[in-house]
Every structure is written in C-alpha cells, then in structure tokens.
Design the sequence.
C-alpha cells in the first residue's frame, strides 16, 4: 500500500499537536500495530500507556476506532 505505516509516523519527529499523546484510540491502534509487527518490547511500553488512558475512558475500548465493530486475531 502506498501510504505511511502507523509505526513510521508515531514518533517524536511530529509536532506534539499531531501526535495526540494519551489518546486512547491512538494508543490502541499503535499497540495493535506494534504487536502485529512483532515489536513486542515497544508494544509492552505502549500497553502501559494504553492501560492508563483506558482507565480514564468513559466506554470500554476494544479497537482503535469506535466505528470498528470487530477485532481480528493478531498475526
């Protein structure tokens, strides 16, 4: 596919306003991406941030987008 990959754009080179730090949906998507890429060490770091953000969420977070109704298996 032609566009950038999530693991290529979620880093410190983007302006802070473009990163949405602490956003539960973004963290969920980033964590899922890292896990599927086999980047388990970084995924564990992001998972801790995701747990904090999910604890503050007003709805249960099971995917990286509210409109996404199902989550397929990793791998």
Sequence:
């Amino acid at each position: 596919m032609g566009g950038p990959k999530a693991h290529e754009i979620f880093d410190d080179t983007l302006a802070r306003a473009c990163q949405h730090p602490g956003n539960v949906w973004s963290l969920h998507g980033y964590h899922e991406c890292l896990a599927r890429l086999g980047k388990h060490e970084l995924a564990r770091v992001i998972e801790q941030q995701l747990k904090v953000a999910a604890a503050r969420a007003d709805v249960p977070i099971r995917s990286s987008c509210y409109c996404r109704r199902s989550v397929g298996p990793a791998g």
